[in-house]
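Q: For a teaching handout, I want to show students what a protein-ligand complex looks like in token form. Below are the inputs, and the small molecule is zinc ion. Please produce the holo structure.
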Amino acid sequence: MITVHLEPEGGTLTFPRITTVLQLLHKTGRKPGRAIVIRGTELLTPDRRLAAGDTIILRDVGSRG
Amino acid sequence: MKCTRCRELAAVALPSHHSAFCPECFLLFCRRMVERAIHDHAMCTPEDRILVALSGGKDSLSLAWLLRELGYQVTGLHIDLGIPGSSAVARRITENFCARHGIALHVLEMEAMGLGMAQVRQRVKRPICSVCGQTKRYFFNRFALENGFSVLATGHNLDDETSRLLANVLRWDADFLADQGPVLSAQEGFVRKIKPLYRLTEFETANLSFLLGIETASAPCPYSAKATFPVYKHLLADLEDRQPGRKLQFYEGFLKHGRKHFASHSTPDLTPCVRCGSPTSTELCGVCRLKAMMTSEADLPEARDNVLDSGQQA
Ligand code: SF4
Ligand SMILES: [Zn+2]
Ligand SMILES: [Zn+2]
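A: Here is the structure, written as tokens, with zinc ion included.
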């Protein structure tokens, strides 16, 4: 199970069967280059593999500031 | 995916540059993009005293950090707008960041001047974002001039710049097109303004700010309106997906080939504001009129001020 926190809108999603960052982006309706994908202190490129138990922050970059 | 430069594990993929970078090389990439912007447009020198407009957002804080890393003399100015919920958060993030990185910081409190945006919003009829933007531009410029800064730097990124360019092109707004660019020279009453992040996308500054440990504000401005620029940002992002590198080409192409054709368009005649001396197209500048309105019982007419309203001073 992968747990995903969405920023900035807030909210948490879980996905039982996702194995890559690219799949995660597709599943959440995002494209590479529009959101940064954070696991702990690490930034993940779209090709990276995810493991069961991972907690991910998906941060959209379109917000102001 | 491996880092294009050192072959370590990549953290940021950048199709528009046919590259991917590990954290360390990505920081170097950002430095180089800013160095190139500064160099290509003769934005500033190590002798300049640079005031950085710090909103508390990722772009402006990253900019202050980058300029400092590159050896420039950097001081931050944060304007506390007095907006319930968001201003206190933005201020705290800015203060923490500057303290952590040893960046000198000044804070101007709009509420103390009778211009807190919560109160202003009750009185004005114009959209609050237009009044707020005008007020910020006025105080950033004025603070720079009165305190001996030769340059005012803002955190506009490539997405800000290209979306505005596209909007101006679609309206064929010749005056705004003439003024658009990463540098606005100093003029009587205006400090030189520079946008050293203009070659970096929003995605790149988001990655950068994460690597720098910049806190992201969880409290957006409650007045933030549906602006039109996001529409253009999305259009350009779709174009970028199909044609990586298009945004930067569009903007650089405009600077190189397009802008000169608009340059002859004249700006309004400016005279010093009778109250504060700032250049204005009317007798009393927009901010002095706002102050007068906030201190009077009656509502004064809200004449527009072309100067403070114009995109030029954004
Ligand atoms: S969203 Fe509008 S009111 Fe809020 S800080 Fe930005 S310009 Fe000011
Ligand atoms: Zn590297
Ligand atoms: Zn004035």
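A: Two things your students might notice: Residues 128-146 of chain B form the longest helix (19 residues). Confidence is low (pLDDT under 50) at residues 310-314 of chain B.
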